[in-house]
Amino acid sequence: MSETFPTKPEVSRPTMIDVARRAGVGLGTVSRVVNGGHGVRDETAQRVRAAIDELGFQRNEVARALRPGKKSTSLALVLGDLTNPFYATIAKSSLEIAGQSGFAVVLGSVDEDPEGEKRAIQELVSRQVAGLMIVPDQGDHAFLEGAGVPVVFVDRPATGIDADIVMVDNEGGGRLATEHLLAQGHERIAILLAPSYYTIGRRLRGFRRAHRAAGIDVDESLVIQLPEGNAEAAEKATREVMLRPDPPTAIFASTNFLTEGVLRALGELGSQLKSEPAVVGFDDFRLADMLPTPVTVVASDIAELGRSAARLLLDRASGADTRPPQRIVLPCGLIERGSGERPPDSAAKRKAR
Amino acid sequence: MSETFPTKPEVSRPTMIDVARRAGVGLGTVSRVVNGGHGVRDETAQRVRAAIDELGFQRNEVARALRPGKKSTSLALVLGDLTNPFYATIAKSSLEIAGQSGFAVVLGSVDEDPEGEKRAIQELVSRQVAGLMIVPDQGDHAFLEGAGVPVVFVDRPATGIDADIVMVDNEGGGRLATEHLLAQGHERIAILLAPSYYTIGRRLRGFRRAHRAAGIDVDESLVIQLPEGNAEAAEKATREVMLRPDPPTAIFASTNFLTEGVLRALGELGSQLKSEPAVVGFDDFRLADMLPTPVTVVASDIAELGRSAARLLLDRASGADTRPPQRIVLPCGLIERGSGERPPDSAAKRKAR
DNA sequence: CTGTTAGCGCCTTCAG
DNA sequence: CTGAAGGCGCTAACAG
């Protein structure tokens, strides 16, 4: 029990040969029984199954995957910070789908740097995964071209390779959020942008389109590019912009973490402000409805993002799907909770006229 | 480019033999170069490396792991809902440590049921992972005894097997939270308990100990066992207990999700209540400091939980650590934010006397 | 120093 | 219906 085995460190698991000997049959027979048991006499199969149980035999998936053609039964998932509920949701939902088909999901260690991503992906490929789901970083992904493994990009496309991509309607969402604010009468809307990922660019595009459609000019000093994508950066930027002589009457935060930073800044600024700006965030988040002013957001079904990606990848891996690269776009909806329905205050309005 | 290859679905990656032929050397030499290149003439090694680059060769980890003894270079992580920031944090931090040693982390699909966990674990074992990190469900885990793979349990121990375990000081945390409330003068403290996991039991124990130490009896009607561990169950229970003729003046929520439910209920009850109870939660959560009343919690370093588990498992897997099963317990601290510092209201006090 | 050889555990022909 | 044999990509042991 509490004894150690310095010389026999590993308890080797039984193999098919052990089972075959135990059951007094040939190796091939055992294999057949294990894989569906087709074409084996019932009595023989019984004996084999008994031996399997007695020995506690478990098929070695590694050896199995070694056969040519036969890919392994695991998918790789490469993404950033699992601590971000957005990514966690993708991980969970894709894992769910993969699991239903008996696939495991391997998470590559993903540091922040773009080189780290490449290394992680290659390590995963060397593990013979049947397919890759990648939330890509900004670097070039052309190196995946010859990997010989199906790839599905999630949340944003990658450059240098034409592969399946599952994402949300970023531009539509950006437009939706902006239109909503414009409809309340806001004419000075600030937008906070995380470092230029593809998604953020599209959201900004929606922002501009909505303005154009409404015949309102975008004040470029309110298009705020943040140096980092975290709450702190957004907090700082919000404080600065709100203390300007001519502050915006509404803020569109392009990311869940940014929304948090905006709210934090507004909370601290509090009474220093003549009036509180309306706020709309992109992506919903837990507790958004419980904050002092419940937060209005533009959101999409992130879990479905992960599910779609996994399903698509599974079909590619099995060879069931041979269509040219697909592009799945999930819609965004508006969830009104209060913060986005604040009208522009009268003082600001007076100034604008 | 946009052509499909129905008959040749896989681009087979180059193998060591290809490299050997290309470099005009033997197979063994290539292997030696790939594994550190010890004992190979420099010039030869150069040629081999060149061939590797030209062919884009990558060692097949699967084949490598087939050798006896040589375990694969991936760890398994089995846990519940990745959507719970608590688990997500464990996943992230353990992944970080594993990655530093060149290990990947395989996530088994974990349904809710206890049988699903066993199946998931066995699938992972069949994939020849080098070790298992498990946040165990309630069932018996004796079946892991003969798995021949090191196991580290995370957050709570499992029954039926004596293995390493990394967890937080649940009892200490429960006691800390309770002492804090008692110190404010609360004598009627309700505790909300998620379905009886090990951790919850310990937290309750701390709750009772703190009472005993203070010479105050626990009102058993305030020890509330919830049917489920989600926010909704806590919300419902909170509403009920607060509407009793003799409601508690403080609430200890034993879980992050439960805390959320408590706050939600209190928010809705609002003015119906004669006075708002103090609230302390177990485990910190994002935005806890931004709620209408910032939430006081007892918390520990969850990321360290994951890191310790991964480090320990890595040492076990490599054989570097052969000590008897370890038990690592991380401390809990109190984070005062407001909700836990509300004194019992005067009306309630009068009643109690 | 370097090439050759024998498996690792399994699946897939191919005979019997 | 069943047993035997070959090979997947790699490493380790053994000759040269």
From TrEMBL, chains A, B:
<dbReference type="InterPro" id="IPR000843">
    <property type="entry name" value="HTH_LacI"/>
</dbReference>
<keyword id="KW-0238">DNA-binding</keyword>
<dbReference type="InterPro" id="IPR028082">
    <property type="entry name" value="Peripla_BP_I"/>
</dbReference>
<keyword id="KW-0805">Transcription regulation</keyword>
<protein>
    <submittedName>
        <fullName>LacI family transcriptional regulator</fullName>
    </submittedName>
</protein>
<feature type="domain" description="HTH lacI-type">
    <location>
        <begin position="14"/>
        <end position="68"/>
    </location>
</feature>
<dbReference type="InterPro" id="IPR046335">
    <property type="entry name" value="LacI/GalR-like_sensor"/>
</dbReference>
<dbReference type="InterPro" id="IPR010982">
    <property type="entry name" value="Lambda_DNA-bd_dom_sf"/>
</dbReference>
<keyword id="KW-0804">Transcription</keyword>
<dbReference type="Pfam" id="PF00356">
    <property type="entry name" value="LacI"/>
</dbReference>
<dbReference type="GO" id="GO:0000976">
    <property type="term" value="F:transcription cis-regulatory region binding"/>
</dbReference>
<dbReference type="Pfam" id="PF13377">
    <property type="entry name" value="Peripla_BP_3"/>
</dbReference>
<dbReference type="GO" id="GO:0003700">
    <property type="term" value="F:DNA-binding transcription factor activity"/>
</dbReference>
